[in-house]
């Protein structure tokens, strides 16, 4: 049997390659670009939007969490209005870099998950509580709060601060106490004058 020529091999395999690789490449501006590349660009845009809409972004190192523990941890995040995701470090790094923030490049290594908080303290509280509960399985790497980087010690400090809603409630309670105390004092003065 004669050895097939290169042209015959290409002619034989061309339909197969077109079938297998169909959809993996798309054309942009006359050049082929991976469809996967376009999907990653979309994910980076979504991460950028989450960063911009969040008041805190906490980076968490997780290690050997069981499915039950992870499910419980995600439930705690949901209760505190925190979105918890495991994302590719390169995509998160790209999103921050696109926003002009490069201070997290070294921290985005190894197993990292990201907690997007709607307030400054919610994500930190859940993670610090999880750290206490699961010991070495969940640890804080760092965070992005109010336009700046916060180290792990700073995140622990954030977790000890009451949330804005709690602070407002405390303030309202304090303000309600002043008129009440004044009313009691005036009532006592009136009682003394009546005697």
**Order of secondary-structure elements:** HEEHEHEHEHEEHH
> What is the subunit organization of this protein?
single chain
> What radius of gyration results from the CA coordinates?
28 Å
**C-alpha end-to-end distance:** 128 Å
Strands side by side in the biggest sheet: 4-5-3-6-7
The CATH architecture of the domain at 44-161 comes to 2-Layer Sandwich
The helicity comes to 55-70%
Shape estimate: elongated
Q: Number of helical segments?
A: 7
* Unreliable segments of 5+ consecutive residues: none
| CATH topology heading of the domain at 44-161 | Alpha-Beta Plaits
Task: Determine the strand fraction and express it as a percent band.
Answer: 15-25%
Computed structural class: alpha+beta
Number of strands: 7
What's the level 1 CATH class of the domain at 44-161? Alpha Beta
Average pLDDT = 81
The major sheet is characterized as:
5 strands, antiparallel
Looking at this structure, what is the CATH superfamily of the domain at 44-161? Answer: Ribosomal protein L10, N-terminal RNA-binding domain
Descriptive notes:
The protein has seven helices and seven strands; from the N terminus they run αββαβαβαβαββαα. With 195 residues, it is an alpha+beta fold. The protein has a domain of 118 residues: 2-Layer Sandwich (Alpha-Beta Plaits). Strand 6 and strand 7 form a beta hairpin. Helix 2 packs across helix 4, helix 3 packs antiparallel against helix 5 and helix 5 crosses helix 6. 22% of the residues are buried. The model has no long low-confidence stretch (mean pLDDT 81).
């Amino acid at each position: 049997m004669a050895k097939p020529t290169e042209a015959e091999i290409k002619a034989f395999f061309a339909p197969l390659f077109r079938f297998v690789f169909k959809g993996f490449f798309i054309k942009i501006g006359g050049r082929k670009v991976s469809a996967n590349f376009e999907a990653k660009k979309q994910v980076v845009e979504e991460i950028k939007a989450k960063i911009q809409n969040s008041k805190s972004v906490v980076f968490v190192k997780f290690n050997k969490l069981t499915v039950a523990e992870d499910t419980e941890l995600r439930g705690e995040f949901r209760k505190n209005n925190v979105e918890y995701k495991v994302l590719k470090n390169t995509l998160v790094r790209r999103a921050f870099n696109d926003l002009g923030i490069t201070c997290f490049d070294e921290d985005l290594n190894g197993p990292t998950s990201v907690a997007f908080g709607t307030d400054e303290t919610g994500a930190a509280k859940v993670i610090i509580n999880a750290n206490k509960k699961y010991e070495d399985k969940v640890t804080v790497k760092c965070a992005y709060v109010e336009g700046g980087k916060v180290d792990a010690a700073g995140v622990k400090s954030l977790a000890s601060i009451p949330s804005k809603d709690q602070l407002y409630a405390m303030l309202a309670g304090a303000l309600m106490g002043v008129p009440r105390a004044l009313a009691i004092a005036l009532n006592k003065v009136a009682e003394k004058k009546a005697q």
